[in-house]
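Form 7-S
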Amino acid sequence: MINENNKALLKVDGLVKHFPITRGIFRREVGSINAVDGISFEIQEGETLFSRRKWVW
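Output:
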């Protein structure tokens, strides 16, 4: 739940992360893996970002 009275501690809009797929001796990019494509979120005071991993990096 977003509290409109407080400012967000962290606000992310349109996050994109693509990993390149390379081939050949010159490591030419032939495609990409889209890990995240256009997500947005806010973290308010007292909230945490959940991850199934032990540590969030």
